[in-house]
Structures are given as structure tokens and as C-alpha cells.
Specification:
Order of helices and strands: EEEHHEHHEHEEEHHEHEHHHHEH
Helix content: 40-55%
Number of helices: 13
CATH class of the largest domain: Alpha Beta
Structural class: alpha/beta
Distance between the termini: 29 Å
Oligomer: single chain
Low-confidence stretches: none
Strand content: 15-25%
CATH superfamily of the largest domain: Exopolyphosphatase. Domain 2
Shape: globular
Number of strands: 11
Amino acid sequence: MEIKKFAAIDIGSNSVRLLISNVLLNSEAPFFKRSSLIRVPVRLGVSAFTNHEIPEVAILHLEETMLGFKHLMRANDVIHYKGCATSAMREAGNGKEIVKRIKNKTGISIDIISGNVEADLIFNSQNALAEKMESNCLFVDVGGGSTEITLFSQGIPIDKKSFSIGTLRILQNQIDKNDWKKMKEWVKNEAGDLHDFKIVGSGGNINSFSKLANMKPGKALSYSKLNEMIEDLKAHTFEERMKVYDLNPDRADVIVPAGEIFIRIMRWVDADEIFIPKIGLSDGIAREAYKEYLSGKKSKLR
């Protein structure tokens, strides 16, 4: 039995994450087990979606976060990592410049990935679960800048798409009726004549709903319960959400728009419950890091 550690760096619009995974290597498929997950609320999307540029103060915050991640990877004996930046860095005019600055200052390499690549990585993190689902599934990952949806039928991937609808964009009033219409039409068209959908949700916000509902492992959250929780949260102020629901500031404001994205999609396919396996993009990036290592790539954490 051999165990090696791989890491994923996920630079999102709302937060930046470092996932360190233990990978059990054997003659069969490798087994991935999360070792630790560190999340830092850098919020690159606040300026990226309005001014299309990330300000110096946020860049410095990101650089310090990457330095911290580098030391944590060293301390955990990570043998290979992969870093990916998503929606905010895609839209920022200075995104490529920031990637170069991070490389020069920290030695950390970051790839700015497209929405389709992001959807692929999320798919890679969850396709094993999809194979266990007997019904039709929609995997939905909601972030600050985008939502990725993958459609499965009887465990087989049918299609996937990334939409520029995210929690920070909603808070900044950047989503209009046409944006929702495009997403709805895609879901309706791709779902076609399929019925009895299960929704599988990923992302920090749906995980928070799971925690607030005191869900047991393997249990699903009902449409009615999720809708009830959203309405209850909307009835409270930002400060009250922090106090009453024990939410961090960077979660207290985005949790409601995230819930509304999930509720809309559930309504479009008449899904009465959502499963929350607590895996997502970071897990997909970790799996990609493992594949890169097998192909001969090795990280240099100077």
C-alpha cells in the first residue's frame, strides 16, 4: 500500500481554496481522501465583474495567500499540485499579469481555465457518484461568478455547460432576465423527455445549507425545506444571519442568491430533493494533479 499527497489550488471569484488529498495507490483505481481544506475569502470577483480588473489590494492579498499555501504544501509533503483560476480571473483584464506576478513572487503556477474546462473538472470529481445514481441527474456547482451544470442519464454524461450566473454577479445586479432565460432553455432542452430528476449540488453555499439543516450523511435536502430556509434567511439582515445562523461574513451575503439558483433549477426539472456530497471543483483539480503526476509532471515548490 502506498499513499501520496496531492494538492489543488482553486482561485474562485468569492474565495481561494487549498485542498490537500491523500491518494491511496493500488492495483485498482486510486482512492482519494481529503486531508485538509483551507479557504480564504479573497473575493476577486467584486471588482472583476464590474471594472473588469482586479485591484492592487486584492492582488497583494492573493499573493500572500499563495505564499501561505506554498508553505502548507511543503509542510504536508505534497508531491504535486495543480492551480486553477476561474470566472473572476477569466474576466479581469489583468488576469494574465496576476498569474505572472504570483509565479515570480511565490513560484506557484496557476492556469486560468475556461468555463468548459471548469465543468470538466467538476464532472471528474463527481462522475463516480453519478454512476451510483439510478435516475437522471443534474450536477450543479454554484460559484461567485458562474454556475456549471452537467447532465447525466442513468450514470452516463449527456452534456455540460457553464453559465455566467453566480452569487457575486447577482449581488451586484449583473444578471438580467435574459441570462436566466438562457440557462432555463438549456436545462429544458437538454433534459428533454427525461423525468424523475435528482439534483446533486456542490459549492460552499449548498454545503452551508446542508449544515444548517443538520443533514445526515447520505440524506437529501427537500425542495420545500431548501425553499423554507432561503425565505427565512431573506427575512434576516446580514448581521442577523451571522449571529443567528453562525455564518461568516463572506457567506452571510452570498448564501441567499446561491440558494435561489439551486431552487430555480430544481423547479425547472420538477426535482423534489437535492443531494449534497460535499465534493466539487477542488476535488476535480486534485484528481487532475494526480493524472499530471502519472504523466511525468512534478511540482517545484521553491
